[in-house]
Amino acid sequence: MPRHKEFSESELLQTAVLLFWEKGYCDSSVDELIKRSGVAKYGIYATFGSKRALFKAVLKQYAEDRKKDIQKPLRQQQAALPEIVAFFSSLPAKLTKKDFQYGCLMANTGMELGLRDDEFSRMVKTFFEQTTEVMKACLDRAVELKQIDPQVDTEILARFLVNEFRTLLMLSSSGHKKRELKLQMETALTLLPLT
Amino acid sequence: MPRHKEFSESELLQTAVLLFWEKGYCDSSVDELIKRSGVAKYGIYATFGSKRALFKAVLKQYAEDRKKDIQKPLRQQQAALPEIVAFFSSLPAKLTKKDFQYGCLMANTGMELGLRDDEFSRMVKTFFEQTTEVMKACLDRAVELKQIDPQVDTEILARFLVNEFRTLLMLSSSGHKKRELKLQMETALTLLPLT
DNA sequence: ACTATTTCATACTACTTAGTCTGATATTAT
DNA sequence: ATAATATCAGACTAAGTAGTATGAAATAGT
Question: To which CATH superfamily is domain B1-61 assigned?
Answer without folding.
Answer: Homeodomain-like (1.10.10.60)
